[in-house]
Amino acid sequence: MPVIRVAIAGFGGVGRATANLLLARRNRYRHVYGAEIRLVAVCGSRSGLADANGLEPDRLDAPEPGLSGPDFIEASGADILIEAGPSDFRTGGPGLAYIRSALSAGRDAIVISKGALVHSGPDLRALARSSGAMLKLSGATAAALPTIDLIEHSLKGCEVLEIEGILNATTNYLLDAMMNEGLGFDEALGRAQAGGFAEADPRNDTEGWDTASKLILIANFGLDEGLTMDDLAVEGIQSITEQHVAAWRSQRLVPKLVGSLVRSDGATRATVGVRTYPPSDPLAHVSGKDKAIRITTDAMGETVAIGSGTEPLATAAAALKDLEHILTARAARAIAGSGGDA
Amino acid sequence: MPVIRVAIAGFGGVGRATANLLLARRNRYRHVYGAEIRLVAVCGSRSGLADANGLEPDRLDAPEPGLSGPDFIEASGADILIEAGPSDFRTGGPGLAYIRSALSAGRDAIVISKGALVHSGPDLRALARSSGAMLKLSGATAAALPTIDLIEHSLKGCEVLEIEGILNATTNYLLDAMMNEGLGFDEALGRAQAGGFAEADPRNDTEGWDTASKLILIANFGLDEGLTMDDLAVEGIQSITEQHVAAWRSQRLVPKLVGSLVRSDGATRATVGVRTYPPSDPLAHVSGKDKAIRITTDAMGETVAIGSGTEPLATAAAALKDLEHILTARAARAIAGSGGDA
């Protein structure tokens, strides 16, 4: 049975959940793909573990200091990299070096953190194309919510005219608190931070950058656009006032922070800002940790998807969906490669 | 450029819309798949057209009597059959012979009408497997709404625990009229029939058989189940009374006819009947022609999809999505086949 070696760079909650789910599904991989999947390396920013014979779950609690970095991952002999490190769209974050290293060597990369993809998406895509490696990012766009999947698979053949996405949980939480409990923005934020629903520095979420990052990934990888952050008009929810809230309440409208993209006459316009929905719109009921996307196409009209998986498991499952798509493609390649022997 | 020949059996509104969309997308197929797609035959129950050089849109208005039947389609030299005839799950309908004929000869089949698939799904699947033909059915399960797509692609790797689907437009219309306009079932039905929203014999819709048919297809082709109509407990909306409606209204619940499937402890339980949803549930807002499915999996939680395309275009687009998946698979096969020459 062929062995396929996987390494995970970035070993916080999501990386760890991905490792556990990967190991728990090894029988499935044997059965469905006829392949033995081995986790040969994991690492965080300062420590890691590697074993060419495969790491078992019980060893993952004791990473060894100093085992980290792209060279460490390369030395593990991994065929596929899963990148799950901290995300920074302004620098690309630590993931960028790992992803570059993997793709340059022709190794497939499954990317969970958005930073590197927003920062250097077109470069990484070009690198993957030139080396023949696959680059997948289901976990980066909105965890378990299918986004690029829908465009590439379920709506295949249709022209995408418009996309609107509710892609950020923190702003869902804050807007709900402001609308339903009469809290002001600062008060809602304080409560969210106390409850662990918002970061200490919440601006990436509240000012719309997280939503913008996800929208850029959907556009660039799902629609072959070449957007950068500079192309987007981004507004957050930080300047919403009591007056806004009162007006929306009186009109029975529900506000959401929405990333939207409209294509017409060959041009693409992408924005992030608050939109309001009447209660009859399914998007009005997307709250808390749920995320949603509405895609309008020429031939299939509107398609809405709403996802509500539990983190970090849902994101891990999204990354491992990518793994199965890679395994499927590798199986097709293997058939192609064996054609000469037939 | 390789030529791929398509035939369409069943040439009512959906068959015709599929032909038009197929012909309108020929440039796309050349560009994306490097293939020339030719529509070499179309037929209804009594008349048809065939041309090995390909039919153009202007000829489709004048079918010739007597050109019909599986032998006519086989003689056209089609590589791929699109079946869009009338649906009858009790007999398999006229589509069954066309699909059997195509799959037996190793030709791929894209099926839009449900009848044959509900009647002989496992047989047809086995036939396809033994001949190496592909059998696709996106247009049959709920038009543009992604159902099997979601299970096979977007939720890949996850275990499906539960499915609930709002899959029938006629019952959406009737329940809306009963809830919002105070009409009784018979009164609502009369109005729906007058407006063209219900058939003269509406029982296939109102008694739940259409929903049950779609649920069986999703289960058998998406989850590899082997359900027949006898395995389902099917209740429709025909016995809903004013008392039911009054109770739901007072509780602010919204009724929908739902096909549901629950898998636990190795057993699958499938039912069709009315379920009620609170207004906070996105499914409460699926009405009119919209359709929806909620799929619960072990690792991704709940995923909801809502589709609202315009017929017959949306169903045509669903069938041609299947065509593109077949073209992709054929391209992979061609690479495999050419491996020997490399």
Molecular structure report:
The structure is a homodimer of 342-residue chains. Helices cover 41% and strands 23% of the residues of chain A. The model of chain A has no long low-confidence stretch (mean pLDDT 95). In chain A, the strands form 2 sheets. Chain A has a 7-stranded mixed β-sheet with strand order 4-3-2-1-5-6-7, sandwiched between helices. A 6-stranded mixed β-sheet of chain A has the order 9-11-10-8-12-13. In chain A, strand 5, helix 4 (95-104) and strand 6 (108-111) form a beta-alpha-beta unit. In chain A, helix 4 runs parallel beside helix 5 (115-131). Chain A is globular. Chain A has helices at 13-24, 26-33, 70-75, 95-104, 115-131, 138-142, 148-154, 169-180, 185-195, 203-206, 209-222, 242-250, 313-338; strands spanning 3-9, 36-43, 47-50, 64-65, 80-83, 108-111, 135-136, 160-166, 233-234, 254-264, 267-277, 291-297, 301-308. The longest helix of chain A has 26 residues, at 313-338. With 342 residues, the first copy, chain A, is of the alpha/beta class. At the A-B interface, helix 7, strand 13 and helix 13 of A face helix 7, strand 13 and helix 13 of B. Strand 13 (301-308) of chain A pairs antiparallel with strand 13 of chain B.
Per-chain topology:
The structure is a homodimer of 342-residue chains.
Chain A: E1 3-9, H1 13-24, H2 26-33, E2 36-43, E3 47-50, E4 64-65, H3 70-75, E5 80-83, H4 95-104, E6 108-111, H5 115-131, E7 135-136, H6 138-142, H7 148-154, E8 160-166, H8 169-180, H9 185-195, H10 203-206, H11 209-222, E9 233-234, H12 242-250, E10 254-264, E11 267-277, E12 291-297, E13 301-308, H13 313-338
Parallel strand pairs in A: 1-2, 1-5, 5-6, 6-7, 9-11
Antiparallel strand pairs in A: 2-3, 3-4, 8-10, 8-12, 10-11, 12-13
